[in-house]
């Protein structure tokens, strides 16, 4: 995936871990990339991806994150992750080799992007791949990292259980989110009681089964809306009989209506 500028005349991918700079920045052009997926992989450097347009999801062994417009995801170095893009993605990013004493999140997380952080990423994306160190460029990137360290964590995260029985249920739910089966119905499909399913879900995710499904619905809704789907389409895809019932669920979970949520982004 040709996101990074190549120092030679030939276009192509440059492994950011091989670039001898503490911060490697890049841009993502909507006209160059459509929807795509990246299989599980990892980098030695940590990664920041800011979404300007479209939506991106990141999956690790223990969680799923949705990144809508005006948000970003932070992926610590060494984290095995898979990326999936919905719609045409436009944004900016950076690979960061953390220096001793740098305080940045130790786990994968989505973050709310401040106007300053966004402008710093846009400006940094125009730097040469092998920019001169020790001057204005290095100072700008140091401010970028300071702004990143102070960014607020966003809420579009879904913890994923490891229990095989739960994963079988969750795989089906994620493939067929319109299935509105009850807790007991889902439990019977894997030979569990409803109490066992609820206990396992709470122990492994910190959420009740119902709260987990609600959070998944909100995340999928944000992803589809950012990809250009209408609220009516999203409500139907999630199995809601009407737009008002879907909007009520979304507002209860996110504190804001789906239309206003996307308009603000």
Walk me through what this model shows.
Strands 1, 2, 3, 4, 5, 6, 7 and 8 form an eight-stranded antiparallel β-sheet that branches. Helices cover 37% and strands 23% of the residues. Helix 4 packs across helix 5, helix 6 packs across helix 8 and helix 7 (231-237) packs across helix 8. The radius of gyration is 20 Å and the shape is globular. The chain has two domains: 16-149, Sandwich (Jelly Rolls), CATH 2.60.120.280; 162-263, Orthogonal Bundle (Arc Repressor Mutant, subunit A). The chain is of the alpha+beta class and 265 residues long. It is built from nine helices and eight strands. Residues 167-264 form the HTH araC/xylS-type domain.
Name the structural class: alpha+beta
Number of domains: 2
Number of helices: 9
N/C terminus separation: 26 Å
Low-confidence stretches: 1-10
Mean pLDDT, to the nearest integer, reads 86
Major β-sheet, in short?
A: 8 strands, antiparallel
- Going by CATH, the architecture of the largest domain would be Sandwich
Rough outline: globular
Radius of gyration (Å) = 20 Å
Protein name: AraC-like DNA-binding protein
Organism: Kaistia hirudinis
Pfam family, one: HTH_18
GO molecular function: DNA-binding transcription factor activity; sequence-specific DNA binding
